[in-house]
Structure formats: structure tokens, C-alpha cells
Design goal:
With 327 residues, the protein is an alpha+beta fold. The chain has nine helices and 14 strands. The longest helix has 22 residues. It is globular, with a radius of gyration of 20 Å. 44% of the residues are buried.
């Protein structure tokens, strides 16, 4: 490959010398002659800039590929900057260095091996990747036209409220630093017991809003999470659609139905029969749309690509098809 590569790296996830060693090792394996190597420019993230600004600087300096070297937050920030206009401004590379590494898991990027991940960037062609966009409102209905409470985030994997978001909010950061994604398991029980079924307004595309009752709603571009678990088997990162998972279980029997739906109906049975679309059940619903709007009865914890973004009372999600090219 030719041209410049921008490396946007999170210093809280890796020592610079270790990352440079991995990058140099990958360059040495792919390019036998030093003069054939692309120029690598380095851009460090910070608390004030999780990656959007650094990715913008990489673009300004002419980088044709921008590599997000960090956790899910770094990947999301870089992807948001590269694809936020709806079309790719440069190709995206991923060197996963975080706890969840959600996009990397869904794309099969090597985990725990920065050199192998960077080699993949160097040797791959760019493939289309959809980018999700979510607009959040932290307050209730506003009638004064003031949108200062609105947040906008790009995402590449999934967003939502309920058990997943509550689990992330409940996870102990120190434990996560020591045990990785297993820390989420420790907080899962508290999240499940503390999450209640609520009624909310749900609108898909241009259909009329309807009242839905659930404790969890996930809106996804990719379907797999930590531990090799696939929650949304129909979700594909390049199909131009959003996949929704609605969970309604409110007692032991309903939870058994949910587990059967995930493990058997949309798990083993699907593998055996090569079934088509994901199956719903009495306690679960699988839906698809290009835009999703929801109004909640009260602010609830919300997550964006594995990051807790606080409590929201309403949100709108849309998909930007092929807004990114990912290596």
C-alpha cells in the first residue's frame, strides 16, 4: 500500500513504545524494503479528545488510512469522524486494545496481538461498513425549541437501554482493569434484578408509533458481544439496516423462554437447520428498521458501543449505509 497511515492511539490502553514496536514489527513482516513502507503519523487521544479531533488532524495531514488503536471508545470516536458525513473520508483500521473490543470481535480482527491486527490493516482492502448515528435527549419532552440537552454519537456496534446498559453502568472500573470483560459478568446479576419492564413509545421508519413494554431495547449494527455471545443473529455490519432486540421477560418462566429463544431458536437450531430470519418469542422480539425513535417514561441508563453515556429520556437512531471503509 502507498500513502500515509494515521495512528490514533489511546495512551491509557497501551505504552507508546510497545505500540510502536508492534507497528514496526508488522511493517517489517509486510514490507521487505524499508523504502516501500508507508509513512506512519502518530496522534494521541486525551480526556478532552477521545479521538474525533485526532482523526481530523490525521485527515488534515493527508492520511488515507486512519487506525484506531484503543478500546471501543477510541474506535467509535475515529469511526464517527471518518464516516459522519455519510461517506468515507479515509479508510478505517482497528487495533483492539480495550476490554470489550466489540467491533473487532464482530469483524474477526485479532485480539490481544497488536502486531497481527496492524498487519491485517496493511494487507487488507477496504470493505464497506455502516455507521449508526444516535441522538439522545437527557430531559423530557421539550416544547421551547431548546436542543442544548441533545447529544449526538456515531456508533459501529450497538446502542440501547436496559440490562446491557445497566450492566455497563454497574461494572467496577478497577475490577474491569484487572479481569477484562469478565467484570461485566459480576455486574450482570445486579443489572438483571434492578431492571424493570417499562412502557415506552417506539417508532420504526415512517410507521405510526406504538406502545411497547420491555426492560431492554438494543439497536444494533453488529450482533455479537463479549464472550462469543450473539444477541442479534441477523445483524450484518454492511446491510444498510438496524437490527433490534426487545426483551420483555418479567418472571422466571419468561426468562426461561428468553434463554430458549437465544440458545436454541436463534442458536443451535439455527446452526443445524440454517434457518432464515431470527425467530421471536413471547418474551423476545427481533425487528429491523433504518430509523428508530423511542420516548421513555423516565430517564434510563443508556449505552453506546459499550460506553455508559448517562440516562436518557428519548432517542433517535438512524443508519448511514457504507459510510465507512474498514480494513
Amino acid at each position: 500500500m502507498s500513502g500515509k497511515i494515521g495512528i490514533v492511539w489511546n495512551p491509557s490502553k497501551v505504552e507508546e513504545r510497545d505500540l510502536r514496536r508492534a507497528v514496526d514489527g508488522a511493517l517489517g513482516r509486510v514490507f521487505t524494503a524499508a523504502q516501500d513502507r508507508p509513512e506512519c503519523l502518530w496522534f494521541e487521544t486525551s480526556e478532552d479528545d477521545p479521538g474525533q479531533g485526532a482523526a481530523g488532524e490525521a485527515l488534515a495531514q493527508g492520511c488515507e488510512v486512519v487506525v484506531a488503536a484503543g478500546g471501543d471508545g477510541t474506535v467509535r470516536a475515529v469511526a464517527e469522524r471518518l464516516g459522519g458525513s455519510g461517506s468515507p473520508e479515509a479508510e478505517l483500521g482497528v487495533v483492539p486494545l480495550g476490554t470489550g473490543n466489540l467491533l473487532a470481535r464482530n469483524l474477526g480482527v485479532p485480539l490481544g496481538n497488536p502486531r497481527a491486527a496492524f498487519e491485517r490493516v496493511l494487507t487488507s482492502e477496504g470493505s464497506p461498513l455502516d455507521l449508526g448515528e444516535v441522538r439522545l435527549r437527557a430531559a423530557g419532552d421539550r416544547t421551547d425549541g431548546d436542543d442544548t440537552a441533545e447529544q449526538r454519537h456515531g456508533f459501529v456496534v450497538m446502542v440501547g437501554f436496559g440490562i446491557d446498559a445497566q450492566m455497563i453502568a454497574e461494572t467496577d472500573d478497577d475490577l474491569k482493569a484487572k479481569t477484562g470483560w469478565l467484570a461485566y459478568v459480576e455486574s450482570l446479576g445486579r443489572a438483571a434484578s434492578g431492571t424493570e419492564v417499562v412502557e415506552f413509545s417506539l417508532q420504526l421508519d415512517e410507521h405510526e408509533p406504538r406502545t411497547e413494554a420491555a426492560h431492554t431495547l438494543l439497536v444494533a449494527n453488529c450482533g455479537s458481544i463479549q464472550g462469543g455471545i450473539t444477541l442479534l443473529p441477523d445483524a450484518a455490519p454492511d446491510d444498510g439496516e438496524l437490527d433490534l432486540l426487545v426483551l420483555r421477560a418479567d418472571d422466571a418462566g419468561a426468562w426461561l423462554d428468553t434463554m430458549k429463544n437465544m440458545v436454541w431458536d436463534n442458536g443451535l437450531k439455527r446452526l443445524i437447520t440454517r434457518a432464515g430470519a431470527a425467530e421471536s418469542s413471547g418474551s423476545t422480539a427481533h425487528l429491523r428498521a433504518r430509523t428508530v425513535r423511542a420516548e421513555l417514561p423516565a430517564p434510563l441508563a443508556f449505552e453506546v458501543d459499550g460506553d455508559d453515556v448517562g440516562e436518557v429520556a428519548a432517542f433517535e437512531v438512524r443508519i448511514l449505509p457504507a459510510a465507512l471503509l474498514v480494513r
